[in-house]
Design brief:
mainly beta, 4-stranded antiparallel sheet, 3-stranded antiparallel sheet, 1 helix
Length: about 140
């Protein structure tokens, strides 16, 4: 599961979190998967990247694999945030090692959607073997 966001912020670094849930007909929810990343280490970077405040960047939030079947009548819910405390440490919205920083500041995030900035959720959906066979036979005809 990948949540692809096109984001901008007023800070040189900040965090983005995504939590995918199943919401039942009665409104209760259960977590399926969640993840977090920062602009500094976006898209799996091994070394800290720089970010210019106000610019738009593509950020992929990749979740661990899971096999999940939604119950009839349920729907998917996606929560996006810049924090998931206490699961993850609070980001100070400054670049550098969070634990060594002495102050924090508010970040003003924007998630962009549209033709040039297609923020989306990418769900891997398994295809049944008989559907694969039908698809292959259609291609050969």
């Amino acid at each position: 599961i990948t949540v692809r966001l096109f984001v901008s912020t007023n800070c040189e670094d900040t965090a983005f979190t995504a939590k995918l849930m199943e919401e039942f007909e009665d409104g209760t929810t259960v977590n399926i998967r969640g993840t977090i990343t920062t602009l500094g280490y976006r898209n799996g970077a091994d070394a800290r990247l720089t970010y210019t405040p106000g610019t738009t960047e593509a950020v992929d939030l990749v979740m661990w694999r899971i096999c999940w079947t939604l119950k009839k009548g349920s729907r998917l819910r996606l929560d996006l945030s810049s924090s998931d405390f206490p699961q993850y440490a609070v980001h100070t919205n400054y670049p550098g090692v969070w634990a060594l920083q002495r102050s924090t500041r508010f970040a003003h995030q924007k998630i962009r959607c549209g033709a040039e900035t297609p923020s989306c959720v990418i769900l891997p959906v398994p295809v049944k073997e008989e559907e694969k066979q039908e698809e292959n036979s259609e291609k050969t005809e």
